Amino acid sequence: MAFEDGVRDGDDGDELFESIDDSGGNNIFSRRELLDIDHVPDENRIVGRDEQIQDLAKELGPAVSGAPPNSVIIYGKTGSGKSLVTKHVMERARDEADRRGNRLATATVDCSQAKGEADTVQEIATQVNHPSTGVHIPSRGISANEYYNRLWDILNGFYDAAIITLDEVDRLSDDNVLMILSRARESGKIDVPIGIVAISNKINFREKMTERVKSSLGHHEFIFDPYDGTQLKEILANRQDAFEEGVLREGVIARAAAMAANKHGDARKAIRLLRHAGDYAENNGYEAVEETHLVQAQEQAEADRLKELISGLPPHTRYVLLALANLTNQQPDDWFRTTVVYDMYTAVCEKSSADPLSTDSIRGLLNELAFLEVIESNREHGGMGKGTYKEHRLLWEPEIVFRMDA
Ligand SMILES: Nc1ncnc2c1ncn2[C@@H]1O[C@H](COP(=O)(O)OP(=O)(O)OP(=O)(O)O)[C@@H](O)[C@H]1O
Ligand SMILES: [Mg+2]
User: Fold this and answer.
1) Which residue, 115, 107, 117, is CA-closest to 177?
2) How remote is the CA of residue 78 from the centroid of ligand 2, in Å?
3) 120-153 confidence digits (pLDDT tens)
4) Are strands 221-224 and 375-381 parallel, antiparallel or unpaired?
5) Using CA positions, which residue lies closest to atom 16 of ligand 1?
6) From the CA atom positions of the chain, what is the Rg in Å?
7) Which of 44, 83, 108, 231 to mutate to test the pocket of ligand 1 (most atoms within 8 A of CB)?
């Protein structure tokens, strides 16, 4: 239909929104959400983990019939599919239990976000709770003990079995939760069998667990190897419908897979690279995603990763990292003593109008960063009678740290 002067004709659309197509995007992506990091791919998009899915299902399987599942520890580098596979198997177990008329409770806690024992139990209780239990789980204000009691009430009253996943379990402040959950039945707290899935990307975590936890978790361990280039390629190829047809130039997926395989075999990184390359193409008005866009995407993908790694740490961690990045910029690849880092840190704080924390707090943050492998710390001897001191080195490119902060 025609409009009067000054009003655009309906068929042409408003040029202000010209770049937005009917799928809500523009000409690069058609379903960008497929490349979201939290996106859980459906079963037929999980690549190369059949064996791990089978193995895990075998250990947890008895729970679908209300019998005791085995507890499991899963190790593997970041982005190797540990959380994904576990989530997938738990969901299928719950559906299968449903089908058989059994009530299976499932809960997953990201221990890097939970702050302590009470928080962790609160989170589990909240996830397995539902309105008809009549049990109230307040978000705060009751003791860890009381949270446990309410959790037992819910499990005893409304479930036949439970599977509880403690993801990033090495970040748990103490192993009490692991102990109490894994021994709840044995100690007479509940009559419902519980299986624990403990996930860690620190291969030496097992050595750090106390004997009592090891013996209560049992000896079922799985190791997830990093993905190779072929698997990463398949993972990405399975999601190419995130893009409009014909937009991905040939070779982009292979190159993204190779770039990610080359570094760590990390699926998350591969997906991120592809998404940022798409964003780059889109933001710069290209009609297609080219291999060169991946190079542009790489820094952003790494900055995202770094941000994610430190997201569970206090805000001042950023200032500490900035301090180390500044120092590293001046003297590449060098090691810096805690006192030197601290001086630079106070300068960074001053610039950001923040009050610096104490040296002890900064030592703690440096330890955390070393644990996450963002930095490396060494203990050095100052020589006769001078005691020891620590030196630190940034394991990431300073540019990535600056970029994260931009
Ligand atoms: N086999 C796979 N098939 C398809 N997509 C995968 C596969 N493995 C991983 N991914 C994708 O990569 C993302 C990261 O995987 P996941 O969260 O399972 O890693 P992780 O091993 O738990 O790593 P982290 O130790 O860092 O937590 C997933 O959200 C998923 O999108
Ligand atoms: Mg994970």
Assistant:
1) 117
2) 7
3) 999 999 999 999 999 999 998 899 999 999 999 9
4) unpaired
5) 81
6) 25
7) 83
For residue range 368-402, list pLDDT tens digits in order: 899 888 999 988 777 666 778 899 999 888 999 99
- Provide the pairing of β-strand 336-337 with 72-76: unpaired
**What's the CA dihedral at 287, 290, 293, 294 to 10 degrees?**
140
* Highest-scoring range by mean pLDDT, 20-29, 249-258, 380-389: 249-258
Q: Report pTM.
A: 0.81
Distance CA 231, CA 200 (A): 22
In whole angstroms, what is the distance from residue 164 CA to residue 167 CA?
9
Cβ atoms within 10 Å of 90's Cβ, excluding its own: 23
Can you list the domains of the chain with their CATH numbers? 49-224 (3.40.50.300), 227-309 (1.10.8.60), 316-405 (1.10.10.10)
Residue type at 327?
Answer: L
